[in-house]
Design brief:
This protein is an alpha+beta fold. Helices cover about 50% and strands about 20% of the residues. α1 runs parallel beside α5 (about 270-295) and α3 packs antiparallel against α4 (about 200-245).
């Protein structure tokens, strides 16, 4: 063993510290090892650090809690602001969708209302236009309208409401594209518009197109009504002028002077314009019908069409005596047995032998007008019988004061003989209108 007490490996060995405590006659001592001293120092240091930390926590606790609370409040405020912004955006989108939906519904309602109005007009116009076509169809057409297609099918409507409505819906659906399955109310609020154009824009253009189509139909209706009314008045005017030129009276108020008129200006909407046009057409057709009715009561047709006149009305050489005499009618060349037809509707007032007329039929047409048919070989009517225009009253012959078979035809007004040529001339002029 080393006498010096040193460790052969670690050098000089450290001796433990010895603590001596003397108290009177008592002396105590204990030895403190180095590791024990280190442990005690570490414990004291830990206690000191813990004390300092606890003291710091107690001092700074309120500040830390306040900072944490403030940070949480800031985060909550940020979240609330974000939620408010998103809610406002959703409200704007919803409001825009509602406005677009209301706009779409308004447009659809307007279109359906106009379609319904046109359909109702079709119900009113159908019979009226059919009557107008029958009454005015023979009138000379407007040169400006020559070569144009007939608009009647478009004017009277052929307005199939469901078909047109289905067409509009189908067109709108096709216009949105195959990939668009969004509901109707979202058409105009797409966040992802289709290429080059939005669905709402195309839907709006389609609405405009349909609206223009309906306006075109409405315009065609009014144009057609105005044209028919104008033609009706033209026909009535032509009949009136022809009858007046021949000196034939017509009891009608057509053509009266209406220049002295007045009243307040009241603007018309489309419905009032349509009603006014329909009323005008109805009045024109009534006027034309009245004139036609009055004209048809006159003996304007040829009693022997296709047969030549052998002796006109007026002064002539009497075929039997050879002296000048008044011929009160017109003679038409006709073989024995040819049907003799009345030239206007009326009532038979005479039917039998009448002196030089031979077998004669007289027909009263009203308003003082009457016609006579003489030299008949056979009479097929009786007194008091009502006849329509063109009815057969008998057969031609050569009875009475006659030199050969023919038809003697007279027109009388209030018992006075009138030249039948005046009536035949007017008849040719107005035949196309009757």
């Amino acid at each position: 063993m080393n006498a010096t007490g040193q460790s052969p490996v670690f050098g000089r060995r450290k001796e433990p510290h010895t603590v001596i405590i003397a108290r009177g006659n008592e002396i105590r001592h204990f030895t403190i090892r180095p590791w024990l001293a280190a442990f005690i120092g570490s414990a004291l240091a830990a206690i000191a650090i813990g004390y300092l930390l606890a003291t710091s926590y107690l001092v700074l606790r309120d500040d830390l809690i306040g900072a944490t609370t403030a940070r949480q409040a800031r985060m909550q405020q940020a979240y609330e602001d974000r939620i408010s912004a998103l809610r406002a955006q959703v409200d704007r989108i919803t409001s825009r969708q509602l406005l677009d939906q209301q706009l779409m519904e308004t447009k659809v309602s307007e279109l359906l209302e106009r379609q319904s109005q046109l359909s109702q007009r079709h119900g009113r116009l159908g019979p009226l236009l059919e009557r107008a076509e029958n009454d005015v169809g023979a009138a000379p057409e407007d040169p400006a309208a020559a070569g144009k297609p007939d608009k009647r099918a478009e004017v009277t409507g052929s307005i199939t409401l469901p078909a047109q409505r289905n067409y509009a819906v189908a067109s709108l659906g096709a216009d949105l594209g195959a990939g668009d399955t969004r509901p109707f109310s979202l058409w105009s609020t797409r966040s992802d518009p289709l290429p080059n154009d939005s669905a709402a824009d195309r839907a709006d253009r389609l609405f405009v197109s349909i609206n223009q189509s309906l306006k075109s139909i409405e315009s065609d209706q009014l144009t057609r009504i105005s044209t028919l009314a104008t033609n009706a008045y033209k026909n009535a005017d032509a009949i009136t002028q022809a009858l007046a030129a021949a000196g034939l009276p017509v009891d009608s108020d057509f053509g009266k002077n209406e220049s002295d008129v007045g009243g307040p200006l009241i603007p018309l909407n489309s419905s009032m314009i349509f009603d006014s046009k329909v009323k005008e057409l109805d009045e024109a057709l009534d006027t034309l019908d009245q004139l036609k009715k009055e004209a048809r009561q006159l003996p304007l047709t040829n009693p022997a069409p296709g047969h030549s006149v052998t002796s006109p009305f007026g002064v002539r050489t009497d075929p039997i005596l050879g002296t000048a005499a008044l011929h009160s009618g017109m003679d038409f060349r006709a073989p024995i047995g040819m049907p003799a037809k009345v030239t206007a509707p009326g009532i038979v007032t005479k039917a039998g032998w009448n002196g030089g007329y031979g077998r004669m039929v007289e027909v009263d047409h009203g308003n003082g007008f009457a016609t006579r048919y003489g030299h008949l070989s056979e009479i097929d009517v009786t007194v008091g019988e009502k006849l329509d225009a063109g009815a057969v009253i008998g057969k031609t012959g050569s009875s009475g004061r006659s030199t050969g078979p023919h038809l003697h035809y007279e027109v009388r007004h209030n018992g006075e003989a009138i030249d039948p040529l005046r009536f035949l001339t007017v008849g040719k002029k107005v035949a196309q209108y009757l």
